Amino acid sequence: xxxxxxxxxGWIGSHTVDELLAAGxxxxxxxxxxxxxxxxxxxxxxxxxxxxxxxxxxxxxxEDADAVVHLANKHDWANPAESNRAERxxxxxxxxxxxxxxxxxxxxxxxxxxxxxRPSTESDPSPFSGxxxxxxxxxxxxxxxxxxxxxTIAARFSxxxxxxxxxxxxxxxxxxxxxxxxxxxxxxxxxxxxxxHVDDAARLVRLAxxxxxxxxxxxxVAEEAVTTRAIAEAIGRHLxxxxxxxxxxxxxxxFGFIGRFFxxxxxxxxxxxRAAFGWQPTGPTLAEDLAAGAYxxx
Length: 298
Description:
CATH topology of the largest domain: Rossmann fold
CATH superfamily of the largest domain: NAD(P)-binding Rossmann-like Domain
Helix content: 25-40%
Structural class: alpha/beta
């Protein structure tokens, strides 16, 4: 297939491009810079210059493709409303360009919106709709296009998609531990996050693109529930720092913006996903990555 990938030079996107190319697909990747274009060409992918706000580029990439994988996001934690606006506009543009074609449309979603007091499952709908919702309500918006001839597949990624070079949430936690001399967890540390290695995540995206029916919700989850205390202890072992509790009211001061999320339970099952696509994660666990120095750069 000819696959158009947004976020093609990002953390998950770059690994997904590698996975798609290795499987024999042709890839066009959205590139925001000369360096991005060079990186994509070196892999054997075709760059398309543009960014998430360049809706014309998104349309052109979609029109020339047999499938779309949407992984880009502004992740502007200082201005979440802007991230939500851009995400909704991009998803609407991509879905409109795919309308009536029955072409697959895999879009990144998250598990944070599904904090239910239990591990979420693939049958749990996202509670967020409308432009003012987190991610601009993009998952529900995209799923509405199933009835309009789009093979929408919502890929709900674990809050940590880990591996060597990751600059996501775990990197921020490691940096906070280095800065403060304490590897912290909020409260009693019993809240839990799901986790997945980036290579396993990329493989599932490729399987979904090839196999998933319209309306599928995927849980990109290898470890269902790693407690926040266990995460802090693994970071502490790596840095030779103590793991200690941080009061909820002090979380943002200690961790930075991620303190708003670290106390949330974001655990999820992937049993349905694994059974449907024969996906068995084989990559290192989060603790193994931390022990191996995957976050030495943080």
